Amino acid sequence: MFTITYDKVPTFVIVGRKKYYLTYNAIYSCPNFRIRSSIKNTMKSYLIKELNNITLRDKDRVSTLKALFEEKQLIFSILYSSGKRTFDLDNRAGLWAKVFLDLIKGRFIKDDSVKYVTMIQYGFDYCKGASLDSFVITIEIGGDAE
Questions:
Q1: pLDDT (tens digit, 9 = 90+) per residue, 83-110?
Q2: pLDDT tens for each residue of 5-61
């Protein structure tokens, strides 16, 4: 099992003078490519920092994980933590999951199609008084991809 923790998760991006929350709603409701691109790039730059840290800290672990995950079915989980309970879990966790899977494709996993990623689970952990959001991503190994 591979686990990665992200603290101090950004929840919005400012484009021009307007604030856009990092949710599926922002992607679907906005036809402006510049705004959608800013949202995606903000998320990718946040996620890539920890992935690069893992790669630099432990190159052997990365190659081991890649070899371990190759040609396997994977179960992907994201546990989203926040001090707020006024958002839809799928809008936040779903978008983070999508961007994360796109980033690890080719780096840790061969592809993010259903041949390799057979389940995606979202969970929520209410952290009373927390001012910043966080999440934990877990990748578990299932059977062989056929």
A1: 999 999 999 999 999 999 998 888 788 8
A2: 888 899 998 888 889 888 888 888 877 888 888 888 899 999 988 877 776 666 666
CA distance 75 to 67: 16
Check residue 120 and give its pLDDT. Answer: 95
Please answer whether residues 10 and 131 qualify as being in contact, where contact means their C-beta atoms are separated by less than 8 angstroms: no
In CATH, the number for domain 2-144 is: 3.30.1330
Q: Residue 97 class from Cβ within 10 Å (0-12 exposed, 13-18 middle, 19+ buried)? A: buried
